[in-house]
Amino acid sequence: MSSERNRRRVLAVVAIMVAAGVLAFLAFGGIGENLVYYWSPTELEASGDKALGATIRLGGLVEPGSIQHSEDGLSLKFSVTDGEASIPISTTSVPPAMFREGVGVVVEGSVNRAGQFETHRLLVKHDNQYQAPGEGENLDMAEMMESMQFEMDEKAKEKESAE
Amino acid sequence: MTRQFKWDSGIGLLGLLLLFVGSYIGLFVAPSERYMGEVQRIMYVHVPCAWNAMLVYMLAFIFAIISLWTHRPKWDAATTAAAEVGIVLNSLLLVQGSIWARATWGVWWDWDVRLTTSLIMLLLFAGVLALRSFVHDASRRATWTAIATIVAFVDVPLVYFCVRWWRSLHQVQSTPDTVAPMMVVPLRINAFAILFIAIWMMTQRARLELDRRRQDQVSEPERLAPIGGSNNA
What we know:
Strand order of the largest sheet of chain A: 1-3-4-6-5
Shape of chain A: elongated
Oligomer: heterodimer
CATH superfamily of the largest domain in chain A: Nucleic acid-binding proteins
Structural class of chain A: alpha+beta
Number of strands of chain A: 6
Largest interface: A-B, 46 and 46 residues
CATH class of the largest domain in chain A: Mainly Beta
Largest sheet of chain A: 5 strands, mixed, barrel
Number of helices of chain B: 7
Strand content of chain B: under 5%
Number of domains of chain B: 1
Strand content of chain A: 15-25%
Radius of gyration of chain B: 21 Å
Largest sheet of chain B: none
Number of strands of chain B: 0
Number of domains of chain A: 2
Distance between the termini of chain A: 75 Å
Radius of gyration of chain A: 22 Å
Order of helices and strands of chain A: HHEEEEEEHH
Structural class of chain B: mainly alpha
Order of helices and strands of chain B: HHHHHHH
Helix content of chain A: 25-40%
């Protein structure tokens, strides 16, 4: 019976080691490089023609002042920025109620020949701030980027703080 | 029986009372959110369910190790109870999150890393229970359940850390600094409410598991008698 008990304890140790190993691999194995949920405007711009036509997700802030509704109200244009690059977006889908200037968005779609990103799926990303109405509203780009967890380009950050 | 009845039923009642108080403050006293409006109040059940689901799964993990180490039936019962209550909380948090997502993000679901790992978490622990139900022999069932629970637990820290490690749609954890003080109050109260209710559910479930096992042991020899011989595993 004691050998049976030892066997179980060995199993316990092995199971924990397997679990810890898998977790360590996921945490430090650089799987994040292959697990890109969205591209930043800078990355999309840098990829140039390679991104043409492919279905991708783009994440960034809605550039203040860029929202344009078409006259018939059926389509919407705006730009998504990370403070460095800015990508023009067009969509015919209805934006969520949370959609506004300076809010984080993730758009799914593709870039057409004219360099316009057409999306059929427009998601609003919100940050971890929960405040009562009228409190601490800000449209400071760097702060917004940070609270929305968008990584800002170092250059863009300097440019933003210099302004 | 009456003595046991007192302590965990007391905790369950306290949990229900706190849930009522916390939800009342959350619904009627706390301010609405500046951008999300009234729908943000779902936070007062969504976040406590998420915290407690992870906590309860962590208990399942600890119980599983003790169960493998000592091989006492009560730890096997505790592991199962924690896994099952974790599944309840996990299901709740996915449904609540989905409703909240529709109102804020604009979609019911997205294959974002936080949402995906949370769903995987549910499937893994459902798998533990499925595996458990396949094994007839109580001793082996305990061993298999414990090992499966330890392996399934790998996903729990991932659920917590993924939003910090990788890009996601889901925001990172809030802190008391990023949440209005009157929103923190109902959040905390409901967190303890769900914790107490979870403890109550786990004790009930563990006791039921032990009762079942005892019953199996009593009826086993009678069932096997006509065939002759006992099956020593």
